[in-house]
Amino acid sequence: MSAVQKVAIAGAGVTGLAAAIQLAKAGVHVDVFEAKPEPSTNGSGISLQGNALRVFDALGAWSDIRAAGFPFEGLNLRAPGPGAPIVAELPDVKTGGPDYPAAMGMPRADLARILLEHARDAGADVHYGSRITGLQQFDDGVEVLVDGQSAGRYDLLIGADGLHSAVRDLVGIEAKPEPTGMGIWRAFVSRPAEVVCSELYYGGPVYIAGYTPTGDDTMYAILVERAQDRFDVSDDDARRIMLEESRAYDGPWNSIRADIEAGATANYTWFTKHLVEGEWNRGRVVVIGDAAHSCPPTIAQGAAQGLEDALVLTELLTSRDAVDDTLWNEFHERRVPRAKAVVEASVQLGQWQIDGDRDADAGGLIFGISQQMAVPA
């Protein structure tokens, strides 16, 4: 029993591929259209909380993903200044339950590769260099235009095409990502043996300095600053800025700076926020993942929320007889409040830092959200 037989998905990122895997496993014909010409091999690392790992298990990809990443427990807080002493060792809420690590890090490119392999093995067709440029809706389906030409008629179009979603625009959803006032530098570097979990430094010249292990020999480092127009700086200037802003941080940052000086790439983006309020679908078109919601990575729930969107949506699509109001009502009841809680908490944590609010209960907010995420979506 399935409400759909043929589905188009915009976007071959984590969310889109997760949806493709689950639908194809259930015997649905799936076409994934990705505007980029080929799978990305770039990027730094990604932090994944336990509830994301739980979804990977449901996809059948957990063993491959675990082998390619660095599972860990807990979070260390260090002080800026000489020696970078650890001032707190915080236990993580195991949001995936007792069967999974509290968290893990891994290279983004490896995660994309593994999910792509699983999607294709399940029977999904993934088309790169294929941009969705138009659509026409009917009562029982949607015709999808790719690069101006009809790709056929589908029972459903899933827009998992990221922050600047073309599908979201095509169906007239006006919500768009807005800057939160923070910008982040990222660099993919080698992992010192002493780094066995995520570590954060609060205070000093930037809002947050930190790093997360992504493998036996790798990790990614971050510096979160006031949002600035850094997008056109040269590679050399990007490295120089990361070096200068990290001088106040000792300990493993000495190794990070050595890698940056040796040529590690420094990338810069702004934190954004948005949430499609109310319904995420317009007829036979629905947006999920970053197309529907975005937030600063202050509690590392972005990927997990997109994965949960995909899992809940595909569960409903493959267990119901029809794409009807009952299906959409349950989808929105299960996903919108949960995503909204994550977006609001993530934005609040960043705003407290921007405002310099010393009375803010950041730990309490993070713990409360983690407890919510521990309950399966």
TrEMBL record:
<protein>
    <submittedName>
        <fullName>2-polyprenyl-6-methoxyphenol hydroxylase-like FAD-dependent oxidoreductase</fullName>
    </submittedName>
</protein>
<dbReference type="InterPro" id="IPR002938">
    <property type="entry name" value="FAD-bd"/>
</dbReference>
<feature type="domain" description="FAD-binding">
    <location>
        <begin position="6"/>
        <end position="345"/>
    </location>
</feature>
<dbReference type="GO" id="GO:0004497">
    <property type="term" value="F:monooxygenase activity"/>
</dbReference>
<dbReference type="Pfam" id="PF01494">
    <property type="entry name" value="FAD_binding_3"/>
</dbReference>
<dbReference type="InterPro" id="IPR036188">
    <property type="entry name" value="FAD/NAD-bd_sf"/>
</dbReference>
<dbReference type="InterPro" id="IPR050493">
    <property type="entry name" value="FAD-dep_Monooxygenase_BioMet"/>
</dbReference>
<keyword id="KW-0503">Monooxygenase</keyword>
<dbReference type="GO" id="GO:0071949">
    <property type="term" value="F:FAD binding"/>
</dbReference>
<keyword id="KW-0560">Oxidoreductase</keyword>
